[in-house]
Every structure is written in structure tokens, then in C-alpha cells.
Specification:
This protein is mainly α. Helix content is 38%, strand content 9%.
Length: 45
């Protein structure tokens, strides 16, 4: 069992990933914030 740290900025939670490629503690909150920030940076003028 491998414990990982959430990769979202500002999140300090630890979690046990259900899938080895999982990067966030909760894809619905932390993952969404990261994806929205990435989208904003790509489409920013």
C-alpha cells in the first residue's frame, strides 16, 4: 500500500490511490481546480 501526497497547490492531504496514476486526493475538487487553472493559463491573452 503506497501513500501519496495530493499534487494540487495548497492541498496537504495524503491518500491511498485506487489507481497508480491518480494524482489528487479527490478528482472532483482538487483535480478540477488544477484542470481549470491549466485551462485558464492556456487560453489567457
Amino acid at each position: 500500500m503506497k501513500v501519496k501526497t495530493c499534487e494540487a497547490p495548497g492541498c496537504r492531504l495524503l491518500f491511498v490511490p485506487a489507481h497508480p496514476r491518480r494524482r489528487w486526493c479527490d478528482p472532483a475538487t482538487c483535480g478540477n481546480r488544477v484542470r481549470v487553472a491549466r485551462y485558464y493559463q492556456r487560453h489567457k491573452d
